[in-house]
Amino acid sequence: MSADLVVTGRGVVCAAGIGTAAMTAALADGARPAPDVTALYSDAMPQPTGYALVDFDVRALLGRKGTTFLDRATGLALVAFGEALAEAGLVIDDESRTRVGIALGTTVGSLRSSADYSLETLVADRPYLVNPALFPNTVMNCASGQAAIRYGLRGVNSTVATGRVGFLGALGYAANVLRRGYASAMLVGAVEEFTPHTAWTHHRLRRPGQPGEAAAVFVLEPRANAVRAGRRVLAELAAIEEGYHPGDDPAERGALLAGCLSGVLAEAGAEPGQVQFAATTEAWNADDELIGRAAVAALPSARPVRVRDALGDCGAAAGALQFAALLDAGGRGTGVLAGWSPEGAFGAAVLRGRDRAEVA
Amino acid sequence: MSGPDGRGTRRVAVTGLGPVSNIGTGVREFGSGLRAGLVGYSKIRSFDPTGFPHAYAGEVPDFDPGPTLRRLEAGRWGRSGQFAAVAARLAVEDAGIAIDRRDARRVAVVMGTTSGESRLVDQLAAQAVAAGGYAGFDTNELTKLPAARLANAASEELGAAGLSVTLATACSASNYAIGYGFDLVAVGAADVVIAGGADSVCRWAHAGFYRLGALSEDRCSPFDRDRTGILTAEGGVALTLEAMDRAHARGARVYAEVFGYGLNCDARHMVTPNADSIAECMRLAHANAGVKPQEIDYICAHGTGTAINDQAEAQAVRQVFGANPPPMSSIKSMLGHTMGAASGFGAVAAVLAIAEGFLPPTANWSIPDPRFDWLDPVPNQSRPATVRVAQNNGFAFGGNNCITVFGALP
Amino acid sequence: MIETSVQKEDLREIVAEVLEVDTDELTDTDDFVEVYEADSLRAIEILARIEKKYKVEIPQSELAKMLNLDAVCEVVARYVGT
C-alpha cells in the first residue's frame, strides 16, 4: 500500500466492558456466558441473556450535556472514539480538527431509533406526535455526526453501511481518504447496538450464538505522521481489498475470497505461510462455513481469531472486534481479516504486527 | 499516489446517466423534465396519510423495476435496492457498456442513502404494533433490511464484481458516492464505477420532518422569500464513472469530466446547517478540483426549501464567490427532497447542464428573499447557457457536506 | 394559584430535562439559548412535550416567544386555558 498506513490507537467497548483490556480478558476465556439482559428493556425479549454491556451508562461516562437524546449505538460509539483518541494521544485543536476524519461502519444505524419512530406514528394520538429531538437518531450517520460534534472533528466524516463487512468497508474507505490526502488521520471503526430490535432480528433470522453489541474505533494514519508526532505504532495496515460476488454459489465465493486473500498477501509482501492469525466472518449458516474454510485453506499456520463465543454476534462491529483482537494477538506477527456478507460483498486486509511494522 | 489536488493520476469521465425519478425515468425523460420545470410531487399514495396535516410527497408513480432489470430478482430486494438496481442498469446502458466476466472485477458500485430500506422499517413497525411486540418482526423484511443491499442490488444486477459499498451519509450521500467512485477510478482501483444513491418515501421521515416544522404543505419553493420547507421524495440515480482513456478508446460519448470533490463536517449541530462550514467545503471542492470560483458557471444547489438551509447556502455562496456568483437553482423544487439520492440527481442535472447547454430552473419561485436578493435562482424556466464548470452541492443531517465539481471536456 | 404554580413546576421539569439541567438550575427568567445552550431542535422538543402532556396544539410560530420559563408559562396558559 503506497501510503504506508499504521494503527496508533484503539477504543473498544463491548459486553465485557470498556477498554481493550476487558475485551482481551474475555477473549482469553474463549467462551463466556452471556449476561442477563432482563433489566435492560421493558419489552419482551427472545431470551433472558445477550452480549450487552448491561451497565453502560452514557451519562456517567460522557456527562449530562448532549447525552439525553442519544441512541445506544451512538453512545457506545462516542465512548469508543474517545478511547481511541486518548490511546493515540491525538490532540484535536484548531490546527488538526479539519484534518482528522471519521469512517464508521454500520448495518442500518440504530434500528430501534427508526423503527420506534415509525411505530410512534401508528400509536400516538396523532401520527405526527413524534419526538423532534429523536429524529436525528433515525439517520444512519447519527453516530459519526455526533462524534464530530463531541470531539470537534470537522474533516471527512463518513458512515459506511456495508453490514456484516461494515468494518472492512469503513477501513477501505478510510485508507482511500488517507491515500488521497483528504485527511491526515482517520478514526475508523464500526458499531452495533443491543436492543429488543436487534435481539429479535437475531432470533427471527435463526442466527447462531447470541446477539451482542460493540463499538470499536482505531486511529489510522500515514506512518510518517505517526513518527513525526512520536505516536506508538500498534500495527501496520499492509493491504486491503474489497469485491463483490454476484450469484450465490458458496464454493465459487470461497474461491474468490481465497484469491482475494492471496492477492492482498502478495501486495503486502507476505507469504501465506507467514500468516499467524486469521479472523474470518463467523458463520451464520452452512454456506458461511464452507466459504470460511475455503478462504483460509491456503494459510497453513494461521490460528483462527474468534470473538462471537465470548462477545456475541456484533454484526457490523464484529469485524472491528476481530481487528482489535488481531492487534492484540498478532502484535508480533502477520494477521489477516477476511469477511463476507450474505449478499456477496467481501474483503480482506493484512495487518502486520508492530515489531515488523517498526522496522519496515 | 496523488496529493490533495484530488485529480489523481487518471482523469475520470461521466459516460452514463441513470435517473429513476418522479419527473421521469432515463436520461431523456429526466432531462426534458428538468427543461420543462416539471413538478413531480403529489398526494401521498404509498402510505395512508390520514391524520397528517400535510400529505404531499414526491413518489415515483407506478415504479415497476421488472422491464428494466435483466439479472436481479426484484422480489428479493427492497424498494430502495430496486431503485438502485434500475438506476445502475440505465446508467450502464446509457454508457453503452457491456460487463462480462473478464472485466467484472474492474467494475465497482458505490451507492448513497439516508434511510436505506425505510419502507421496510415502516412495515416492521406495523408488524410490531399488530403483534404487540417486536416478536412480530417478519423475516422477509428483516432479511431485506441492511442498507448494504442498495449497492449490492446494483452489483448483482450488473454482474459487477468490484467493491460494492453503500455510504449512509444522509442527504449528501450520492455526492459521497460519486466522490469515492471518482477516487477509485483515479487511482486505478477500478476502471468503471457506478455511483449514485437511492431512498424511498416513508411514513416516519414524513412525520419527523413535519414535526421539525420543515415540511411544506404541497409545494417546494427554494430561495423564495415565502418558502415553507421540503417535501419528502424518492428515487434512484446512478452515474457511470469511467477512466477517461478507456472511454476515449471505446469511442464513448463523454457527458463531462469529474474534476473532483470536497467534503467536510460541520461538527456543530445534527440538523442545523452552518454557512461557514459550507463555505469551507466549497473552497475544499474548488481546490481539489483545481478550479477557481470565477470559473464556475452554474451551481446546482442543495436548496431544500427550508428557511434555514437556503439562507445558509446563499450566505456561503456569497462568502466564496463574492459579489457576482453564478446562477444557482434547486431541482428539489421539482422533485422534492429525494434524500440520499438528491445530490445524485443534482449531479445528473449539473452534467446535463454542461453537456446540453442549459440551466435547470427553480420552480415555484416568485419573490426574492431580501437577505439574498442578489441570487439568480433561474426562476421557473430553464434557459440556454454555456456551462464549462458546474458545482453540485450536497449537505446533510450530521453536518456531512460534500460538493462535487464537473467540467466540460477541453 | 396553586394550580398554576404546580403547572409551572411541571413545565420546569419538562424544560430542564430537554435542556439537560437540574430543575433548580433552571430559573424563571434566564434565556434558554444564552444561558442553557438551547437550540431550535430543543425548543421544538420542549413544544412537542408540552403538546403531548396537555393534549393541545401550539403553533410553531409561538416558539419565537418561548425564550425563558416565564414566557413558556405564558404561552402555554393561553392554549391550555384555565
From TrEMBL, chain A:
Domain of life: Bacteria
Organism encoding this protein: Solihabitans fulvus
The keyword Amino-acid biosynthesis belongs to this UniProt entry's keyword annotation: no
Record SUPFAM superfamilies: Thiolase-like
Alphabetic keyword roster: Transferase
Gene Ontology CC terms, in alphabetical order: cytosol
Domain Beta-ketoacyl synthase-like N-terminal residue range list: 6-197
GO biological process assignments: fatty acid biosynthetic process
Listed name of the protein: Beta-ketoacyl synthase
Automatic annotation (TrEMBL), chain B:
Domain Ketosynthase family 3 (KS3) per the UniProt entry, residue ranges: 9-408
Database matches in CDD domains: KAS_I_II
Alphabetized UniProt keyword annotations: Transferase
Keyword Ubl conjugation found: no
Highest taxon of the lineage: Bacteria
GO molecular function, one term: 3-oxoacyl-[acyl-carrier-protein] synthase activity
InterPro entries linked: Beta-ketoacyl_synthase, Ketoacyl_synth_AS, Ketoacyl_synth_C, Ketoacyl_synth_N, PKS_Beta-ketoAc_synthase_dom, Thiolase-like
A GO CC term assigned to this protein in UniProt: cytosol
Entry protein name: Beta-ketoacyl-[acyl-carrier-protein] synthase family protein
Record carries keyword Nucleotide-binding: no
Organism: Solihabitans fulvus
Similarity comment: Belongs to the thiolase-like superfamily. Beta-ketoacyl-ACP synthases family.
From TrEMBL, chain C:
InterPro entries listed in its UniProt record: ACP-like_sf, PP-bd_ACP
The name this protein goes by in its record: Acyl carrier protein
Limits of the Carrier domain: 5-80
Source organism, top-level taxon: Bacteria
